[in-house]
Design a protein that fits this description.
The protein contains 8 helices and 15 strands. By secondary structure, the protein is an alpha+beta fold.
Length: about 280
């Protein structure tokens, strides 16, 4: 049996989950490396090192600040681009990165409003970023902020593999919210959520297009898309009207008072699903 076959077995998945609280970071890191290499090989073999953006410097990780950022020993604070955290992200980052030398890659080095530099983080000569490792283990969710098509697809493939194997946060049946239960989505206000369901109607009101998933617009879940975002969907070959009666998966920050809403600003926040298929990305 090859290493990839061993990693994909149910026994290996159990062993990996059981080592999260172990005292051997090296063992956890080795298993994480195996998982991400094998899963990415299986799900995105056609993509050759897709996230190799320009290097934005190197450093040694001194501290994990929170579930989405770390501090280097030279004082720089780095925000991990491309992902949203789950309950286990900070613990996973601590196991993976404390004391490690890393390379930062991104399309630009402009800091966010908190002074953090957003980047994909690489270590140990790996061709895959730490973000892909977290996603492959179910320790993070794709944020859809990465604009590069190939890199975004590779990150989404890592998440999709974790969903299929019910790794990490995806082991929870409620990890993906159902549009037929709007109250469950409403309970996630102020949080980043992944929601699936069938679009019942597509309506435009002023400068906003609404994808409605419920027959009652005051209580049902809806996706809002502003006029300034329409060009991006058209550029991707997606007509919003064509989404009517289609099953989609949408991700974003939940808001709303009566009915829950997600405001879509990036094409990557929306995935088309097959009639019976809950996992994976369609081009």
């Amino acid at each position: 049996m090859t290493e990839c076959e061993e990693v994909s077995s149910p026994h290996a998945s159990f062993e990996l989950r059981s080592t999260r609280n172990a005292t051997s970071p090296g063992h956890v890191t080795r298993l994480l490396h195996l998982v991400v290499v094998c899963l990415l090989a299986a799900s995105s073999a056609a993509l050759a090192n897709p996230c190799q953006f320009e290097s934005q410097g190197e450093g040694r990780v001194a501290a994990i600040v929170d579930a989405r950022s770390m501090r280097l020993d030279d004082g720089r604070e780095i925000r991990l681009a491309g992902i949203e955290p789950t309950a286990t992200t900070k613990q996973a980052l601590t196991s993976l990165l404390i004391g490690r030398n890393v390379t930062l890659r991104s399309a630009d080095d402009a800091p966010d409003r908190y002074g953090r530099q957003g980047a994909l983080v690489f270590f140990g000569g790996s061709d895959s970023p730490v973000q892909a490792m977290l996603l492959a283990q179910g320790d993070a969710i794709v944020s859809a902020e990465i604009a590069d098509k190939d890199c975004a697809a590779a990150l989404m493939a890592s998440e999709a593999a974790a969903r299929r194997q019910k790794m990490g946060s995806w082991a929870d049946p409620s990890a993906i919210k159902n549009t037929e239960s709007p109250d469950d989505i409403l309970a996630e206000i102020g949080r980043f959520a992944v929601v699936e369901g069938k679009v019942l109607s597509v309506r435009q009101a002023g400068a906003t297009t609404y994808l409605n998933f419920g027959r009652s617009w005051t209580r049902g879940f809806a996706v809002t898309i502003s006029k300034r975002t329409l060009a991006a969907f058209e550029g991707a070959g997606i007509s919003l009207k064509s989404l009517e009666n289609r099953r989609i998966r949408v991700r974003g920050w939940v808001e709303g008072n009566t009915g829950p809403r997600i405001d879509v600003r990036l094409v990557g926040q929306v995935e088309l699903l097959g009639a019976n298929e809950p996992a994976g990305v369609r081009p």
